[in-house]
Amino acid sequence: MIRITVPATSANLGIGYDTLGMAVSLYSHFTFNRAETLTITGCPEQFQNEDNLVYESFVNALAEWGEETFPVSIDISTEVPVARGLGSSSTCVVAGIMGAAALTGHTVTREELVAIATAVEGHPDNVAPAILGAAVCSFTPEGELPRCLRYEVSKRLRFITIIPPYEVHTSDARKVVPQEVPLSTAVWQMGRIAGLTRGLEMGDLDLIAASNDDRLQEPYRRALIPDYDAIRETCLTGGAKTMWISGSGSTLMAVTDDTIVAKFLQVRLRERFPECETHILTCDTEGAQIEYL
Ligand SMILES: Nc1ncnc2c1ncn2[C@@H]1O[C@H](COP(=O)(O)OP(=O)(O)OP(=O)(O)O)[C@@H](O)[C@H]1O
Ligand SMILES: N[C@@H](CCO)C(=O)O
């Protein structure tokens, strides 16, 4: 039996739409076994069939390597909620490719994994950190494979993660983002992306907060998250330095470098928003892992 573990990811990190992402300490585990028929367990019933994203990625990877598809049993055990902006779809895509490689004796490099997973997901900002760990800035040069710049995130930083009970589907959240922006907005974003990555590396909260002022997506997407304003106010008055929408939402992520502040804030959030799940996360440095059981 093969077990693949893939971390959740926070894409965009506010300022870096479709460009930045960070792996965090919340995980999905997937086991794969050859079987007589396809069986998928451990996920909502609606996904227990051939349209399951893990299985689709498994089949797609086999086709990529010219291999015949074959039946498998897949069991999913996940801490990553579906359609909440924590990269649940990327965990499925990465696991499917790694499962296909492991069961057919293929060796895939992390670089190859990023390329195949990006082709399935459509953008690399979740899959790249899910595979490589840490924070990653990724882009795809014309006609080439994705390039990934990996940034080690300061171990001091804590990411207070608030997961509302409602879903926001990425496809819907992409529709509210303007397709064109003025040059001044492009310039606004560029320096701040550099500021944010440097701030994460240095654990420089002031720099992170100064850089986290997105004008591409957050002003439009906040309306899709009914609790955005109230949670933001609670986080910023409760000691966090800044907050962003994780991926396309609905999860919100606040940042501090003080473990006591993180705990106080988590308790306050649980009191005020009992219907939300909250976690104090750190950056995952390892990315996707495989074990032979
Ligand atoms: N455990 C699972 N089993 C099968 N499919 C899943 C599972 N988890 C997620 N998915 C697939 O991923 C889709 C959700 O992807 P979506 O991109 O909307 O959200 P996300 O990946 O959780 O968040 P984001 O991309 O904003 O970080 C689901 O509709 C489903 O197709
Ligand atoms: N960059 C993507 C991440 C969600 O998959 C978005 O914000 O739409």
Topology:
Layout: E1 2-11, E2 20-34, E3 39-41, H1 53-64, E4 72-78, H2 88-104, H3 110-121, H4 124-132, E5 135-139, E6 147-151, E7 158-163, H5 170-175, H6 183-202, H7 205-211, H8 218-221, H9 228-237, E8 242-245, E9 252-256, H10 259-272, E10 277-281, E11 289-292
Helix pairs in contact: 1-2, 2-3, 2-4, 3-4, 6-7
Bound molecules: adenosine-5'-triphosphate (ATP) and L-homoserine.
Description:
The chain is of the alpha+beta class and about 290 residues long. The chain folds into 2 domains: about 1-150 and about 285-290, Ribosomal Protein S5, domain 2; about 160-280, GHMP kinase, C-terminal domain (Alpha-Beta Plaits). The chain has 10 helices and 11 strands. Strand 8 and strand 9 (about 250-255) form a beta hairpin. Helix 2 crosses helix 4, helix 3 (about 110-120) packs antiparallel against helix 4 and helix 6 (about 185-200) packs antiparallel against helix 7. It is globular and about 55 Å long. The chain starts with a strand and ends with a strand. The structure holds adenosine-5'-triphosphate and L-homoserine (HSE). Adenosine-5'-triphosphate (ATP) binds near residues 54, 84, 89, 170 and 248.
Order of helices and strands: EEEHEHHHEEEHHHHHEEHEE
Q: Name the structural class.
A: alpha+beta
> Number of helical runs?
10
Low-confidence stretches: none
Assign a percent range to the helix content.
Answer: 25-40%
The N- to C-terminal Cα distance equals 5 Å
Radius of gyration: 19 Å
Overall geometry: globular
Compute the average pLDDT. Answer: 96
Work out the number of β strands. Answer: 11
Strand content: 15-25%
Provide the list of bound ligands, each named once.
Answer: adenosine-5'-triphosphate, L-homoserine
Chain oligomer state: single chain
CATH top level class name of the largest domain: Alpha Beta
Give the total of domains: 2
* CATH fold call of the largest domain: Ribosomal Protein S5, domain 2
Taking the sheet with the most strands, its summary is: 7 strands, mixed
CATH-level-2 architecture of the largest domain: 2-Layer Sandwich
Subcellular location: Cytoplasm
Pathway: Amino-acid biosynthesis; L-threonine biosynthesis; L-threonine from L-aspartate: step 4/5
Enzyme class: transferase
EC number: 2.7.1.39
